[in-house]
Design brief:
single chain, binds SN-glycerol-1-phosphate, 8 strands, alpha/beta, globular, TIM Barrel
């Protein structure tokens, strides 16, 4: 298995109590004339990772998109794919997502089987990740596209049991996802309960729009916070978000 240092870096940060921030880039939405400038702002702010993906990607230029970021910086590029159509050898690592909150076999194991031979030959570090969709107060693209019901936002016991099962199955990280553009991010109490129940790195995203909200997720136990929409709307926010890490 390839080791690009992404997972070990995340574990080392977790061990040292250091928080991490990722900016989610959807290649389809990142085509404005200011896209390069916005990347530079994030690079200057010291973002830790770029996550690349989306529920649907229409733009066929994923390789070129990744190369254009790589030309600007050495920040790890982590694929966060909505499907096996979103794979590329130009990234550093891949979140190999199993949607363990859902009961759609395609997203639990089906797409993984299709992608496995491609990934086996790839230079990508594969990070098996339990992906858990939590109700964010609005029907998000990931909910519709995955054809799965999210875990109700106040059912911490279901989230905890699912997370424990994911860790017991050998998944290396856990991702609590309210969905891009969620009205409400995952609650602090759910993050805290899941954090207490597992020891693998905990990633949280969806509906985080401010440094306060990112800070609350960190305080509750998130090791890595992922922000997309809010940075598309206000690229300068990345400085505040980066400062919310500790
Ligand atoms: C990453 O889907 C999220 O987990 C991103 O959500 O676009 O709402 O920040 P936002």
């Amino acid at each position: 298995m390839v080791n690009s240092g992404v997972y070990s870096g995340l574990c080392a940060a977790k061990l040292a109590g250091k928080k991490r921030m990722a900016m989610l880039l959807d290649p389809d939405k990142f085509i404005s004339p200011h896209a390069g400038d916005n990347l530079d702002i994030a690079i200057d702010a010291g973002i830790d990772y770029f996550f690349i993906g989306g529920s649907l990607i229409a733009n066929p230029g994923l390789d070129a998109f990744l190369e254009s970021i790589r030309d600007r910086c050495d920040i790890p590029l982590v694929l966060f794919p909505g499907s096996f159509f979103q794979l590329s050898y130009r990234a550093d690592a891949l979140l190999f997502l199993s949607l363990i909150s859902g009961r759609n076999p395609e997203l639990l194991i089906g797409q993984h089987v299709i992608a496995a031979p491609f990934l086996k030959l790839s230079p990508l570090e594969i990070i098996s990740t339990g992906y858990m969709l939590i109700d964010g107060g609005v029907n998000t693209s990931v909910q519709y596209m995955s054809n799965t019901a999210p875990i109700p936002k106040d059912k911490n016991d279901i989230a905890v049991s699912t997370a424990i099962a994911g860790e017991m199955l050998g998944l290396k990280a856990l991702y609590l996802e309210a969905g891009s553009g969620a009205l409400n991010p995952v609650s602090g109490s759910m993050i805290a309960d899941v954090r207490r129940a597992i020891s693998i790195p905990l990633i949280v995203g969806g509906g985080i729009r401010s440094a306060e909200s990112a800070g609350a997720a960190y305080m509750a136990g998130a090791d890595l916070v992922v922000v997309g929409n809010a940075l598309e709307k206000d690229p300068g926010l990345v400085r505040d978000l980066a400062a919310a890490r500790y």
